[in-house]
Amino acid sequence: MINLRYETFDCNIHDVSKVAKLVYDVDFRTFDMLFKDESKAVETIARDLYKRDKDDYFKVVLDDYGEIIGILIIYTSKTSHNLYLKSPRLVIVDILDHFVLCDIEKEDFYIAEIAIDESLRGQGIGRKVLLDSIDYAKRKGYERVILDADFRNSGAKALYENLGFKVFNKKRLKIGKFERGMYNLEFKL
């Protein structure tokens, strides 16, 4: 198995375009609805990344050679969010997320986003990132790890359940033809 390293994202060190593409991959349906064009979405996400640079909750996942192979974004109830101006379309993504994503309680460790490079999917890397996250949360004394799985992503939901996550809530938002739904899942520590 590949050894993984986690570093706080730094736009002066890490490939911003690659990280932006991974962010896009997590929620491509919403980005496609708002931008109608993958390259515009990725470009806007990249500009946004420069504003949120060096936030400790935003990690890049690196392989043995220091290459970015994924991202991991985590929050806790103690996480302080840096406020900055965003593209209006990215603000819309945040608003839509508010209605379907997990509510973070006091002793929760929330995995907000996890993405593995498309060329490396299916090799157990995502599983390893999740197991590392669960181990970290245990060591830090959190009571549960929580995350979300899109209703349309049965593969992710199956992976999470295989690791012991259980659905504790379902949230759905429908606006006109747009519909988004999430399974909120928990792993009790």
UniProtKB/TrEMBL annotation:
It is an enzyme of class 2 (transferase). Coiled coil: none annotated. Pfam families: Acetyltransf_1 (PF00583). InterPro entries: Acyl_CoA_acyltransferase (IPR016181), GNAT_dom (IPR000182), YpeA/RimI_acetyltransf (IPR050680). The keyword Acyltransferase applies. Residues 44-189 form the N-acetyltransferase domain. CDD domains: NAT_SF. Keywords: Acyltransferase, Transferase. GO terms for molecular function: mycothiol synthase activity. Its EC number is 2.3.1.189. This is Mycothiol acetyltransferase. It comes from Methanobrevibacter thaueri. The gene is mshD_2.
